Every structure is written in C-alpha cells, then in structure tokens.
Amino acid sequence: MLYYIIIFSDYSFIKVSSVIVDSMEIETVEGRLVRLQTRDKVRIEGFLIGTRSEACMIYVHGMFGNFYRSTLPFSLARKLSRNGVPVFILNTRGHDAVAVLKKGRGERLIAGTDLERFEDSVFDIDAAIVALKQMGFKKFVLVGHSTGCQKVTYYQYKKKRREVIGVLLLAPADDYAIYRKELGSGFAAKIRLAKALVKKGHGDTVTHLMPSHFSPRRFLSLADLRNQEARVFNYDGKMHGFSSVKVPVCAVFGSREEYACKPVVEYMEILKRKNNSKSFLGVVVDDADHSFSGREDFLAGFASKWALNLRSGKALPTGILELNSRFPLASVL
Q1: How many other C-beta atoms can be found within 10 angstroms of the C-beta atom of residue 84?
Q2: Region(s) of the chain under CATH 3.40.50.1820
Q3: pLDDT level of residue 304 (50, 70, 90 thresholds)
Q4: The whole model's pTM is what?
Q5: Rg (Cα) of the chain, in Å, rounded?
Q6: Which of 52, 127, 244, 322 is most buried (CB neighbours < 10 A)?
Q7: 273-286 per-position pLDDT tens digit
Q8: DSSP of 271-289, one letter per residue?
Q9: What DSSP state is assigned to residue 331?
Q10: How many CB atoms within 10 Å of residue 314?
C-alpha cells in the first residue's frame, strides 16, 4: 500500500520522493496548504502543487474522496507541475463520507458526501478560483473525477467564468443510471422511501435505509431527475448543463470502466453529439478502470500536453480516440 506524507512548504517548487520503511512505501509530496472560506462562510482546504504560472488546474474529487488519499491527482500534479502547469487539489465540503467543517464564527457544518448539497459545490470551486487569482493565477482548467465531473460541469454552466479555459472530465459516469441499475426493481420504492423520510423531517439523517448510507435528501439529489445533480450526466436525458459549456472539453474514460451502464464509446458519442463547446475530445484509455489504477502516468502524460496546448492557444484535436501503449496519448497532441 502507498502512503502519502504531505509536507507543507513554499509553493515555488514541488518535490516528490519515495522511500521504503519496514516494507511500507511512503511518498512525500511538497506543496502549499491553502485554507479557503467560501461565500457562505464554510472553511475548506486545498493543496497547491507546482510553480507560479499564468494557468492552474483545479482538481475536484468524486464521492467520498479528498485531496490526499487518491494517487490520481498526485500523478497528474507530478507530470503537470514539471511541465509548468500547477495543480490545486480541492477538498470540497463533500469530502469523505461525513465531514465536520467550520462555518462562520464558531458554527459547525456537518457535510461530506452523505450529507452535502450538490449545488453548494459552486461555492467551493468559486472560493478556489478567487483564492488562486489572489495568488497571481489568471487562467484555470477545471478537472473533475467521477462525481467531480458533475460538479465542475455544473459550476461552469452556472458561472460561465471567463478565466476557465477548459474542462477535463475523468470518468464522467451517470450516477442516476448507476443507482437505478444497482437497485433494480427496488429503485422506485427507494425513491418513495427517501421522499417520505424527507417529508417527516429526516432528510438530513444518515441512514442504512439509503444506498451508501446517504441521507434521504442526498440520495434524491442524484437519483431523482428533478434534481440538477441527477441530470448533469444523465446520458439518456437532455444534458442541458453539459451542452451549455462553451470552453474546450476533454472527456476520458477507461476501457474497463466498472460503473458504465453503456459501452464507454457510446458515452463518448453522446457527449460529442450534445457538446456545444469550442472543441470536444473523447479519449478511451485502454485497460483502465474508473480510477485509472496503474494507468495514472499514462493519463497524466496526455493531460499535461492537452493543458499546455490549451494554455498556449494551440489547436486541439477533436473527435473520439481509443488509445493504448502502442498509440500513446501524448502522441495525439
């Protein structure tokens, strides 16, 4: 197992080193811890890796994620920062299963994936952009992984930030379809139960009666198509939020995406058809799963080139590509 030790330092450089201690691999990562206060006065954090630059990537984790556990954002940051593109790994208020956050003066907000309000993720991403602008960054690429894709897409749909020059979607799965498939014939009954619990005043109670121990309200957020979160990447729906994003978009799936309810190439075709951005590129990474396990460096090589071309204003490739080690991602750009 790989363990990360985060070393807080001046963010003028990045240093990544790996050592073996008593058969346990420990990797150290140097960067800068940034504490943020959102517009609704919630205090969150992020970790900035890389040198000063005009542009910065903002990485938004998926369900139950955080800024320090997954290898994926650190693999991206290692490659990107060496090429002059810093990465800010954001802890949204939806980090981990349940999280106790400070709010205002002495208040507490109990959030985390099981309890967060999806729409509030706009506050979190906005706070990151505001703070990074104060540090001197001028352009941003929003990167989402898993449900983080819904968050960055929804953010740009709502805010239409001119400073955002691109959106990178890593495994933008259809959470609505996933839970509908998982629950099968019991899906409608679970929806009715969640609505009944909300009506009785238990909407924000974490319970084993809901999948993944979600609160009833949180479950409805992604399982009821009347809610924004459920619609963002509902591939059988209109996907109005996604279609409203005008900046260049790149979507990446692994060929072994375990949460796919359709063939990943079909997902790509739908995204391409519904896309109204300046350019759309769909990439299927051969032999990669939802977390791109073991293929992180392969993905990072491409993401680095795509981001550099985006920053410099070079023409970006479009279409759908199925790529493997014989046809490296980096060779596309």
Answers
A1: 16
A2: 33-173+240-332
A3: confident
A4: 0.90
A5: 19
A6: 127
A7: 999 998 999 999 99
A8: HHHH--SS-EEEEEETT--
A9: G
A10: 10
